[in-house]
TrEMBL record:
The lineage of its organism: Eukaryota, Viridiplantae, Streptophyta, Embryophyta, Tracheophyta. This is Uncharacterized protein. It comes from Manihot esculenta.
Length: 643
């Protein structure tokens, strides 16, 4: 997986640095017992912001405490990097570290719990670029380190909407431990011990097996006797797994307190609650055919509905409004957010979820039933129009029409929809006018004239950011052609383009470049955003197959998460760093929107620019610090004065 790919930039990950001079002045000689040596003598530990791409060659820095700011209903993340100074394992790796995190607690006794609000994941490289976030065990996990390589752990803190504001503190604890193989050599059971164990367990079984039909008091006696024997076996043979608070496989507290590296985590939770429904509808495609092929589920089967529901619910945590899609001929696209028909109880469950900001209504049935297809659309729309969530509905019919015939298809489908629902919103993505009927002398002018050409058959004009190049001033040319008073909206999208250095989500771009997609949206003033595909990797027919990006697309384009089975036995999807940065960008929009609601949109843009966070598609911060400065400024100027 880790072969570098042509055209993937390093993204500021310090590739190519030599590792000289980092091993400390007095390397520890001979065999090392990690339970007797401070972990700091064995590994470097330091922290990196969520926008850093921490690759295997990342060089150590000083360890500083982590200071984070989060609103309520917000996720904030940080990375902890670990790199071995020496090897203490007898096997091929450098050694094993155990990582654990305490709960975060505030001065007034409120807590954020590990495993519930605090989650850690291991950063795994895809094509040599750090990208996949593979879940680790909570509250204690073990990681095997590779000599001369940096490993990163991604720590996320999710602050619930009802969490009391305040200063929260906790620690991340890293301890070098002995490998199982090193321990087990000295702890293998010999034949005599095995026989003793066998006899004791056999006796337990003989005591409880014949209890069928025996009087209750005898059953109780036998179970008590077996329990005593089992406890004895556990204590005599598995004593290292016992601690005061039950059996846990972790180092004892004294060893931890004396030898471990401790990273202080400070989190300020403030009053602001991010809205339950995201302010910016960000609609992302999920290919249903990719799910069908990889997981072997048949379209319309119970397993199919389950697989779709899992993807739908999982993506909502990223403040994204998913839609499922399948492509027809010449880029016609069937899109639907809910696979169930409008009259089904599941439909309301999906569509009225407050985390969903917009939903796609299918033009044809997602799963064909016995209804006549021609009545289908009319019936669906009649039911949906009676719902309070209808205002979130849109129809996405064609992906990037290129010629008159395709534009006419959009018109015809839209006319039919509007006959049943005059207030329906049709969304069309495009980057050019029809090639065989130029609307104006130059391609850009023709592109700007598309709304005049498509009206009233489209309400959401969704244009490629690629068309603008670095000319942010062209936005006003697009917007001036729209009629917001008639409900017309301007949304944008990215896909293969724009390319480096413009903001996009390709693999190997910088972390701030990923996050900048949403800064750009907010500054340009679009009211929605579309992304064509989040799981569009090459076809595979087994869940655990290696992930391959589609040929002809930049690496990472169309893939924002991975099937869990490609990394472990878990079937939970595995997020990419890029998906986490999309969430951060959507959260930044809520901060900017709050600031603009107090001080006006012009002041919001001024703040984005004067902090150096984002000035234009080729001028945005490469460092993390300005982001913290901007968010801190919004916190300072928008929090209630009594704090």
């Amino acid at each position: 997986m880790d072969n570098a790919v042509e055209g993937v930039a390093g993204g500021g990950t310090a590739y190519g640095w030599s590792d000289g001079g980092l091993h400390g002045t007095n390397p520890l000689k001979g065999s090392i017992d990690p339970l007797e040596v401070p972990t700091a003598d064995l590994v470097h530990v330091w922290c990196m912001p969520s926008t850093a791409n921490v690759g295997p060659q990342e060089i150590p820095r000083h360890l500083e405490p982590v200071n984070l700011l989060a609103a309520r209903n917000e996720r904030e993340s940080v990375q902890i990097a670990i790199r071995p100074k020496v090897s203490w394992s007898s096997s091929g790796n450098a050694g094993i570290v155990q990582i654990q995190c305490t709960d975060l607690s505030s001065t007034s006794g409120d807590r954020l719990l590990v495993g519930q609000s605090i989650m850690f994941r291991r950063v795994v490289s895809i094509l040599g670029v750090p990208d996949a976030l593979v879940p680790l065990d909570h509250p204690v996990s073990q990681i095997s380190l590779i000599p001369g390589e940096t490993t990163a752990v991604w720590v996320s803190i999710d602050v619930p909407s009802a969490q009391p504001p305040g200063q929260y503190e906790g620690e991340f604890i890293i301890s070098a431990v002995k490998a199982e193989s090193d321990r087990s050599r000295s702890q293998c059971l010999n034949r005599g011990e095995k026989h003793r164990l066998y006899t004791e367990l056999r006796n337990c079984l003989d005591t409880v097996e014949p209890i069928e039909g025996k009087p209750l008091d005898e059953v109780v006696e036998r179970v008590k006797s077996a329990t005593t024997s089992l406890r004895k076996v556990l204590l005599s043979t598995f004593s290292e797994f016992f601690s005061d608070n039950g059996p846990v496989d972790m180092m004892d507290e004294d060893a931890i307190s004396n030898l471990s590296v401790r990273v202080k985590l400070n989190l300020t939770v403030w009053d602001f609650i991010l809205p339950a429904t995201p302010s910016l509808p960000a609609v992302f495609g999920i290919s249903d055919t990719v799910i069908e092929d990889r997981f072997g589920v048949e379209h319309g089967s119970d397993e199919w509905y389950e697989a779709l529901e899992q993807h739908f619910k999982w993506l909502l945590q990223y403040k994204i409004s998913p839609y499922f899609c399948r492509w027809g001929d010449s880029m016609r696209v069937l899109t639907y957010t809910c696979p169930w028909p409008a009259g089904h109880p599941k439909s309301d469950e999906y569509l009225s979820d407050p985390r969903l900001a917009a939903y796609a209504v299918p033009y044809n049935q997602a799963v064909s039933g016995n209804d006549a297809a021609k009545d289908y659309l009319q019936k669906e729309v009649e039911i949906l129009r009676t719902k309070s969530h209808w205002k979130k509905a849109y129809f996405y019919l064609w992906d990037e029409p290129l010629n008159l015939e395709q534009y006419d298809s959009v018109r015809n489908m839209a006319s039919e929809i509007h006959a049943y629902a005059p207030d329906a919103r049709v969304l069309t993505t495009y980057y050019c006018g029809p090639s065989d009927a130029p609307l104006a002398p130059t391609p850009f002018e023709a592109f700007v004239k598309v709304p005049k050409f498509l009206r009233p058959h489209t309400q959401i004009y969704c244009t490629s950011e690629w068309v603008l190049g670095n000319r942010e001033d062209l936005v006003k040319d697009i917007v001036s052609e729209l009629q917001p008073e008639s409900g017309e909206e301007w949304w944008t999208y990215v896909c293969m383009g724009p390319s480096d250095p413009h903001p996009n989500w390709h693999l190997g771009m910088r972390g701030t470049q990923h996050r900048a997609v949403m800064w750009r949206v907010w500054k340009e003033g679009g009211t929605g955003f579309l992304y064509w595909g989040a799981n569009c990797y090459e076809k595979a027919t087994v869940p655990s197959a290696e992930i391959r990006f589609r040929r002809g697309l930049p690496p990472g384009d169309g893939v924002l998460f991975y099937p869990g089975e490609a990394f472990s036995s878990s079937s939970q999807p595995v997020a990419s760093l890029r998906l986490e940065r999309i969430l951060s960008g959507l959260q930044d929009i809520e901060y900017l929107k709050l600031y603009a609601s107090r001080y006006g949109r012009d002041e919001g843009i001024a703040l984005l620019e004067k902090t150096g966070v984002y000035l234009g598609p080729e001028r945005y911060t490469l460092e993390h610090m300005p982001i913290d400065v901007m968010r801190g400024e919004i916190f300072n100027t928008c929090r209630p004065m009594h704090e």
